[in-house]
Design goal:
Layout: H1 21-32, H2 42-52, H3 56-68, H4 81-97, H5 99-109
Protein backbone atom coordinates (compact mmCIF):
# COMPACT_ATOMS: atom_id res chain seq x y z
CA UNK A 1 0.00 0.00 0.00
CA UNK A 2 1.39 3.43 -0.98
CA UNK A 3 2.04 6.29 1.37
CA UNK A 4 -0.64 8.97 1.50
CA UNK A 5 0.69 12.35 0.40
CA UNK A 6 -0.24 15.04 2.90
CA UNK A 7 0.87 17.78 0.60
CA UNK A 8 3.86 20.00 0.14
CA UNK A 9 4.49 20.27 3.89
CA UNK A 10 4.60 16.52 4.46
CA UNK A 11 8.11 16.83 5.92
CA UNK A 12 6.65 18.57 8.99
CA UNK A 13 4.81 15.43 10.11
CA UNK A 14 6.70 12.37 11.32
CA UNK A 15 5.46 9.55 9.06
CA UNK A 16 5.91 6.89 11.78
CA UNK A 17 4.33 8.61 14.78
CA UNK A 18 2.20 11.26 13.09
CA UNK A 19 3.62 13.90 15.44
CA UNK A 20 4.08 17.46 14.29
CA UNK A 21 7.82 18.15 14.04
CA UNK A 22 7.29 21.90 13.73
CA UNK A 23 5.29 22.02 16.96
CA UNK A 24 7.97 19.96 18.73
CA UNK A 25 10.85 22.22 17.65
CA UNK A 26 8.98 25.45 18.43
CA UNK A 27 7.77 24.12 21.78
CA UNK A 28 11.31 23.07 22.71
CA UNK A 29 12.65 26.50 21.76
CA UNK A 30 9.94 28.28 23.76
CA UNK A 31 11.00 26.28 26.83
CA UNK A 32 14.69 26.86 26.10
CA UNK A 33 14.29 30.64 25.77
CA UNK A 34 11.23 31.72 27.80
CA UNK A 35 12.00 35.44 27.31
CA UNK A 36 11.34 35.05 23.58
CA UNK A 37 9.04 32.02 23.83
CA UNK A 38 7.10 31.47 20.64
CA UNK A 39 6.85 34.43 18.30
CA UNK A 40 5.13 34.72 14.95
CA UNK A 41 7.79 34.25 12.33
CA UNK A 42 9.84 31.62 14.14
CA UNK A 43 7.73 29.01 12.37
CA UNK A 44 9.19 29.96 8.97
CA UNK A 45 12.75 29.56 10.22
CA UNK A 46 12.02 26.31 12.07
CA UNK A 47 10.13 24.79 9.12
CA UNK A 48 13.04 25.45 6.79
CA UNK A 49 15.47 23.93 9.28
CA UNK A 50 13.27 20.84 9.65
CA UNK A 51 13.20 20.47 5.89
CA UNK A 52 16.99 20.50 5.52
CA UNK A 53 18.15 18.86 8.77
CA UNK A 54 18.05 15.13 9.40
CA UNK A 55 16.29 15.19 12.77
CA UNK A 56 14.09 17.44 14.90
CA UNK A 57 16.95 17.66 17.39
CA UNK A 58 19.33 18.95 14.70
CA UNK A 59 16.74 21.52 13.64
CA UNK A 60 16.29 22.63 17.25
CA UNK A 61 20.04 23.02 17.90
CA UNK A 62 20.47 24.87 14.61
CA UNK A 63 17.63 27.21 15.60
CA UNK A 64 19.33 27.84 18.96
CA UNK A 65 22.60 28.57 17.17
CA UNK A 66 20.93 31.06 14.82
CA UNK A 67 19.02 32.77 17.61
CA UNK A 68 21.85 32.94 20.16
CA UNK A 69 25.19 32.97 18.33
CA UNK A 70 24.00 35.14 15.45
CA UNK A 71 21.70 37.16 17.74
CA UNK A 72 18.57 36.70 15.65
CA UNK A 73 16.59 36.59 18.88
CA UNK A 74 16.88 40.38 18.67
CA UNK A 75 14.37 40.22 15.80
CA UNK A 76 11.83 38.77 18.23
CA UNK A 77 12.59 40.53 21.52
CA UNK A 78 10.12 43.17 22.77
CA UNK A 79 12.36 46.02 21.58
CA UNK A 80 12.92 44.43 18.13
CA UNK A 81 16.54 45.52 18.61
CA UNK A 82 18.07 43.61 15.70
CA UNK A 83 15.15 44.24 13.38
CA UNK A 84 15.67 47.99 13.64
CA UNK A 85 19.35 47.68 12.69
CA UNK A 86 18.47 45.35 9.78
CA UNK A 87 15.93 47.86 8.50
CA UNK A 88 18.54 50.64 8.69
CA UNK A 89 20.90 48.40 6.71
CA UNK A 90 18.20 47.65 4.12
CA UNK A 91 17.48 51.35 3.74
CA UNK A 92 21.19 52.09 3.16
CA UNK A 93 21.47 49.30 0.57
CA UNK A 94 18.38 50.51 -1.26
CA UNK A 95 19.57 54.12 -1.18
CA UNK A 96 23.02 53.32 -2.58
CA UNK A 97 22.47 50.32 -4.87
CA UNK A 98 18.82 50.60 -5.91
CA UNK A 99 18.25 54.32 -6.11
CA UNK A 100 15.09 54.11 -8.23
CA UNK A 101 13.37 51.73 -5.83
CA UNK A 102 14.51 53.79 -2.84
CA UNK A 103 13.19 57.03 -4.36
CA UNK A 104 9.86 55.37 -5.19
CA UNK A 105 9.47 54.09 -1.61
CA UNK A 106 10.37 57.48 -0.14
CA UNK A 107 7.96 59.25 -2.50
CA UNK A 108 5.10 56.88 -1.59
CA UNK A 109 5.76 56.66 2.17
CA UNK A 110 7.29 60.09 2.80
CA UNK A 111 9.20 58.64 5.78
CA UNK A 112 12.13 56.28 6.29
CA UNK A 113 11.52 52.52 6.40
CA UNK A 114 12.60 51.97 10.02
CA UNK A 115 9.65 53.68 11.78
CA UNK A 116 7.26 51.46 9.82
CA UNK A 117 8.46 48.47 11.80
Amino acid sequence: MGRTVIGEKEYLIDPDSGKNKLFNVLNAYAHFDPEIGYCQGLNFIAALLIKVMETEEDAFYCLVHIMVVHNWRGCFDPQLSKLASLMDFLECVLETAYTGIYEHIMRELEISLTPLF
